[in-house]
Structures are given as structure tokens and as C-alpha cells.
Design goal:
By secondary structure, the protein is α+β, with helices and mostly antiparallel strands. Helix content is 38%, strand content 25%. Strands 1-2-5-4-3 form a five-stranded mixed β-sheet. The longest helix has 16 residues, at 13-28.
Length: 114
């Protein structure tokens, strides 16, 4: 059995733009990724099933499949060149503001060959 949820009209426009930009850059570099963590939960439960859940943070966790740490750095550098700002204390975090003016913390969580 396969179940698909169409949440395309339910997510904030600015956040969709952030997702799209990260996905596009990762795709150009042939780096598979997926949204994980609380954001993944919210997409399914809040936007798919209208559950009432409050978020404590404005972060989006991306699981990124990389071959090694150099491969990770290639994606991180490409995102910084695109408009994402490195966090001063957390190497895995980039900060951005979406087109709606909302700030987001982007966490890049590597898996695979690292």
C-alpha cells in the first residue's frame, strides 16, 4: 500500500523556496537529501492531517548522503555561495531568511561514507 499526501498548498511559500533552493543545489552536485526531524513530522502530521503541534524551533534538518567529509564541504560551500550564512559556532548549521522574512536554521546532517 502506498499513501501520498499533497501538502504543496499548505506549506509557507518562503519555506518552499528555501527547500527548493537547497534541493536544486544538492541535485546539481548529485547529493541525495531528505528532510528529517521535527520538520518531517510536521509536514506529515500538521500539514497532512491537521494535527495541532507547536514547534519549539525554526530549524529544518536535512539528511544528506555524502561519500566523505570533502563531499559534505562541497555542498556546504555551494549553499553559502548561494545565500546561506554559516553559523558562528555550529559547523553543521546554516542560517537564512525566506522571502516572507522568516528566519530559518538549516541543519545539514551527513550520512553515508562519513
Amino acid at each position: 500500500m502506498t499513501t501520498s499526501l499533497d501538502v504543496s498548498e499548505k506549506l509557507p511559500k518562503g519555506l518552499i523556496e528555501v527547500y527548493s533552493q537547497i534541493h536544486g543545489i544538492a541535485a546539481e552536485l548529485s547529493i541525495p537529501l531528505l528532510i528529517v526531524g521535527a520538520t518531517a513530522r510536521d509536514i506529515i502530521l500538521v500539514h497532512g492531517y491537521n494535527a495541532a503541534i507547536e514547534r519549539g524551533t525554526k530549524d529544518v534538518d536535512f539528511g544528506i548522503e555524502v561519500q566523505n567529509w570533502e563531499h559534505y564541504e562541497v555542498l556546504r560551500t555551494a549553499l553559502i555561495e548561494a545565500r546561506f550564512t554559516p553559523h558562528s559556532k555550529r559547523a553543521h548549521q546554516l542560517d537564512t531568511t525566506d522571502s516572507d522574512g522568516l528566519p530559518w536554521e538549516i541543519d545539514l546532517i551527513p550520512f553515508g561514507g562519513v
